[in-house]
Specification:
With 373 residues, the chain is an alpha+beta fold. It contains ten helices and 18 strands. Strand 11 and strand 12 form a beta hairpin. The longest helix is centred in the middle third of the chain and has 27 residues.
């Protein structure tokens, strides 16, 4: 085989690695490395010398590591054998990706599991040619961009489930609202996936979600939208009002059934109310319908008392009775309760009238001691 005078490779946007087809080289051969290329001398499966863009005339001093191995003789026609590999450093921007089957994700807001589809594209470039050549290429003479995308397709898709889930949970965002976060999701995925690509000497330039969607006709989506509408209603009118409204709905439906007697209505209403988680509200409604039930106790009445120009209390009626018996409070003591405009004498308050009338006077003071002689 004839000796080679020029070693070069015309780069394209498809091949990221190209092995020059001849190993018969000679000193004096020119190695032409184009822009966005890196060339390597390989022998016995091991990388020796590396060259960046430019024209390099092969001399024993220009291939120092390889020269030490094969002890090249001097002379312009001295032949030697070595592989020359070219690595393409251009940026590939149009690699498409997409989920072949829906990803099952649980909505973090409403707890409904829905099928999610996603697709987009990403761009990459070889950031470390030596690592890329050693970890991915092996002994393949050509390594195309399709091989890169095929190799990482599984990694990308397997990572998307955890990436999308972790982002939704972190931001507490419903799947129904994720379409407004495509740019934020793209940046998030880019940072996470780059860690895996960098291990092979590849850098992701961009990673874009073009769409994250769910099939509208899927039953889980219908359920998710119902949950969202219910949450919005509760948020607007309040949980207590909503539960009471649901309780009246249950009673109304029960009244429409056969046997409209109050007893049947109560039994049906309470039974359904427990089933729907509205037991407390149903109990209140049932109490208001049953006229035989005793009235609720009066609200607890409490007063503040001004003693030695200091506010004390609040005290309930039992405590106030004790203070009256001990002589701490009399009819002129100033008192106040919620609803009063100003402080007033205890004797003028209706709650204190019965207390003063039913409370015996305090014991008289002891007699003074006899005078000393």
């Amino acid at each position: 085989m004839a000796l080679i005078d020029v070693v070069k490779h015309q780069a394209n946007d498809k091949d990221f690695v190209y092995k020059f087809p001849s190993e018969d080289l000679r000193l004096g051969t020119q190695l032409v490395v184009s822009i966005s290329q890196t060339a390597f001398f390989v022998k016995g499966g091991k990388i020796f010398d590396q060259y960046e863009s430019g024209t390099h005339t092969l001399k024993s001093e220009n291939i120092p590591l390889l020269n030490k191995l094969i002890n090249l003789p001097f002379g312009s026609s001295s032949p030697f054998q070595a592989e020359v590999w070219f690595v393409n450093l251009i940026t590939k921007m149009d690699v498409k990706w997409g989920t072949a089957t829906p990803i099952q994700l649980e909505d973090p807001k409403y707890g409904v599991i829905v099928p999610v589809r996603a697709y987009g594209q990403y761009g990459f470039r070889i950031s470390n040619a030596r690592v890329f050549l050693e970890t991915l290429v092996g002994n393949m003479t050509v390594f195309s961009s399709d091989k890169v995308s095929d190799y990482f397709k599984g990694k990308v898709l397997s990572s998307l489930t955890s990436l999308i889930s972790s982002k939704l949970i972190k931001e507490n965002v419903s799947i129904l609202e994720i379409s407004v976060m495509l740019d934020e999701m793209s940046d998030f995925a880019l940072n996470k996936l780059n860690t895996d690509f960098n291990k092979f000497g590849i850098e992701l330039i961009n990673f874009n979600f073009i769409s994250i969607n769910v099939p509208e006709e899927d039953p889980s989506i219908v359920k998710l939208k119902e949950a969202k509408d219910l949450a919005a209603k509760v948020r607007i009118i309040g949980r207590d009002v909503y539960q009471m409204d649901r309780s009246f709905d249950v009673l109304d439906k029960a009244a429409q059934n056969e046997g409209g007697a109050v007893g049947n209505l109560m039994g049906a209403g309470i039974g359904l109310g427990v089933g729907l988680g509205a037991g407390n509200q149903m109990g209140n409604v049932a109490s208001s319908l049953n006229t035989n039930m005793p009235p609720p106790p009066p609200p607890l009445m409490e007063f503040y008392v001004l003693l030695n120009n200091q506010q004390n209390g609040p005290f309930n009626l039992n405590k106030l009775k004790e203070l009256i018996m001990s002589g701490t409070i009399n009819k002129d003591t100033l008192v106040w309760k919620t609803g009063m405009a100003n402080w007033d004498n205890a004797g003028s308050q209706i709650e204190f009238v019965s207390l003063f009338n039913s409370t015996p006077p305090p014991p008289p003071p002891p007699p003074p001691p006899p005078p000393t002689k």
